[in-house]
Design a protein that fits this description.
Number of strands of chain A: 17
Order of helices and strands of chain A: HEHEEEEHEHHEHEEEHEEEHEEHEHEH
Structural class of chain A: alpha+beta
Largest sheet of chain A: 9 strands, mixed
Helix content of chain A: 25-40%
Oligomer: homodimer
Strand content of chain A: 15-25%
CATH topology of the largest domain in chain A: Aminopeptidase
Radius of gyration of chain A: 22 Å
Chain lengths: ~400, ~400
């Protein structure tokens, strides 16, 4: 017998949870994330969904029947470092629960319905967000991806087999349900909403190089200290984004040699930047890079900026969004943009008509142990997803 | 047969050397540093020096004979992370070479002479500089020290036995030879110099706490981002030290969760501060802490400052310094201050008359793979140390 939403949610709660913070460490191809993947296969089998995997670790559980093209729904099970419980798993659990709900209503879809789990959506291990969906759609080639390395130097090519994917061959529509990562639905008093677009987003590695030296004996004026160049750049990025109503974050840094009594030789830091338009993103990164270079000149250091990944603006299929938002009982669901990247954005960019459903998040906090959604809202989400799938598979 | 200076130097060159940077990783009680410690015992035995160890891992090789109080010389064999070859080992190798030189001259000291190696001088593993000499003098108690933990959480008490030390019981004078860590001797055109004093020095841990959140969806104005508070503090520390002619460095940082797409929940950074007087050090740390607190208020974050170690100003015995600087053939050696901490400072503060000899460093660079001294200058250093020991043991 398949479990209901709350039972499934309880299954996942302890997996990869850090006792100290209450946050989750479910990095791709590590034990907790593999445990979740195995759990997903069990849940598919318990529901007699046919399990199909690809060479990258992506999985779909198929409710076969009817004639294609198929309707796919799902999300991901990996987390950022010390992340929340909802980002990803809510979409997977809700998809399984929506199938249970459709079956309990006696729905017989006229098309195949699949529940998907894409690997490494967060990019927290190999650095490229939406890695699984990029590989499944061909947006990123395996030749490129297999050389990606994690922080310990492990190659992606040594972790998964790699090759090709046929998972999306017969997919006509994709629907991803996700916890909201802001407070738009709180402001609008709605339990669920529909995505209009995803802001363009890039990750840029800033390599600041200077000269290691003794922190005591080296006169301040004799230093080439890359930490100073970094510090000014982090403040500049924040200020520029604030002034322009965009987003810029330096949340990750690596320092060499990272010793208390040594001026660093190198500081590497990653800029996460997201803007309301592609042009605004280019402009923001340009101005931050220029300010970094100017400060490097003053500090006697050097800075090199490498775009590790850039995703253009994604506008979801407007007709589909309008239909999902309106074609059900009760008031329309609000249609809102998001600043977060999603596998749905990759599938949409690959030409698959795609929609996203959001579930209200009382604090708007995400990528944090404090991420939350009320059970009542989650159940509204399951019902909304079941309604949407039912209509799309008629 | 004991080796000469260059032969000994060649023995040490490959131990703990990183191929990529050419720097040294000789952290206390790790394989490379233990290899050096074993090498030192071999060298003592080859010279028929009686090896005495204490419960903390400090070692002295004794050239017994005559009546106490003894004259001790030596330095340390550990390095900072990715450090240079000279800081520490030069003093140990020069001490052994000086004994060879004294013996070749037929010197028979009227007092015992010891060659010492103190553990963890750099504080690069357990965070407390001059740990071995602090324990040997009782400046730090074992009850306190045994709870110190390295970055992996390993307790010092689980690495060394601990207890008491009798190594210094009969020591009347200490002389440490060290590579210079600035360019005073270059400016003065001298191969060797004598220390007048050590600047006061402190290490302060700054814990900046904020709120983890999604780097894309969280509006800039809704963030409590501790990275910003840190960045302003690093710039403020540099500016204050520059204006006051002192030293302040943030060279070590740890970020949680340190993910590209997450606003950090916590940034921990260490301030290394050194000043020409105790009052100036207190003043510098106060103003940096106040600026950090003011910025934290603006950022919605919090900052807590913890002094992990503070060493007051050390004035070496002025009569001994004058005697060492003048009582030899040729022109007097210059007497200069240093901003670097040394075991010599700890022994001096413990009431043991102490002197330091410096060997010229062409670039002044230290705590870096680029740290250097010419062999000719090193040999002048060996000769100066032998002369000094000979006069002190008459």
């Amino acid at each position: 017998m398949p479990d209901d939403f709350e039972r499934m949610w309880g299954d996942l709660a302890p997996v990869g949870r850090a006792v100290s913070s209450g946050g989750y460490f479910r990095q791709p191809f590590t034990t907790p994330e593999r445990e979740l993947a195995a759990w997903f296969v069990e849940q598919c089998e318990a529901r007699r969904l046919r399990v199909e995997t690809d060479a990258f670790g992506n999985v779909v559980g198929w409710w076969d029947g009817g004639a294609g093209p198929a309707v796919l729904t799902g999300s991901h099970l990996d987390s950022v470092l010390d992340g929340g419980a909802y980002d990803g798993p809510l979409g997977v659990v809700s998809a399984l629960a929506a199938i249970d709900l459709m079956r309990s209503r006696g729905v017989v879809p006229a098309r195949p319905v699949g529940v998907s789990v894409f690997v490494e959506e967060e990019g927290s291990r190999f650095g490229l967000a939406c890695l699984g969906s990029r590989l499944a759609t061909g947006a990123t080639s395996w030749e490129t991806a297999r050389e990606l390395r994690d922080r310990e130097g492990v190659r992606l090519g040594d972790v998964v087999e790699g090759g090709t994917s046929a998972l999306l061959a017969d997919v006509g529509t994709f629907v991803e349900l996700h916890v909201e990562q802001g407070r738009d639905l709180v402001d609008r008093g709605a339990a669920v909403g529909v995505a209009s677009k995803i802001w363009p987003h890039g990750r840029y590695r800033f390599d600041f190089t200077g000269s290691a030296n003794h922190a005591g004996t080296t006169r301040m004026e004799d230093r080439q200290d890359p930490m100073l160049t970094y510090a000014m750049t982090a403040l500049a990025a924040n200020k520029q984004a604030r002034l322009a109503g965009q987003r810029a974050t330096f949340g990750r840094i690596e320092v060499e040699p990272n010793g208390t009594n040594a001026v660093p030789s190198k500081v590497t830091a990653w800029l996460d930047a997201r803007c309301s338009s592609d042009d605004a993103l280019v402009g923001l990164v340009e101005v931050v890079s220029r300010q970094a270079a100017e400060r490097a000149e003053r500090d006697g250091t050097a800075v090199e900026v490498t775009a590790e990944s850039v995703s253009g603006s994604v506008a979801f299929d407007p007709d589909l969004a309008a239909r999902v938002a309106a074609d059900h009982e009760g008031p329309d669901w609000p249609v809102i943009p998001t600043q977060a990247g999603h596998d749905a954005g990759i599938l949409s960019a690959a030409g698959i008509p795609t929609a996203m459903l959001f579930v209200r998040n009382p604090t708007g906090v995400s990528h944090s142990p404090a991420e939350h959604a009320e059970v009542a809202d989650c159940l509204v989400g399951v019902s909304a997803l079941a309604d949407t799938l039912e209509r799309l598979t008629r």
